[in-house]
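re: ur question from earlier - yeah i can do the single chain one, its not a big deal. heres the input i used so u can compare w yours
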Amino acid sequence: MLLESTRFGEIEVDDRDLLVLPDGLIGLTGTSYTLIATSDESPFRWLHSTEDPELALPVSSPWSFFSDYEVRVPDADVASLGLDDASGAEILCVVKASETLEDFTINLAAPIVIHRDRRIARQVINEVVGYDVRQRLLSDAQLEQLRATGRPEARVS
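and the output i got, formated as tokens:
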């Protein structure tokens, strides 16, 4: 399939890489998406709508930034995805990029759960209490470490 994107231009997408989100994403329209990686080194990918050329959200594995992150998916969501166990799932969280690293946030309260084989996904409400919709992506210590190594900017493009 040929994907039209205002961000990336025309992109060839293998039909096997399509994701169906039957219930869409919270606050957005559309049910057909694909994941686009712009760099093998980046922890970020783009969840791009195949229906709206302007809709592309940066996403990342929460464990890239929060090694102790826990997610509990409601039983009804597990059943609707047809997941037999956690090994068949990929978890991604939506990132809000900003002009400065200090203002990057990640939605740990409502991760996207993908059934790897079936290519079906759902945005769910994490049953583990205490995670924020706008969790700061990097701590002050992480920001200082990035500045000390000469890598003060992050790119999601």
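Residues 2-148 form a domain with the BH3618-like fold (CATH 2.30.290.10). not sure if urs matches, ping me
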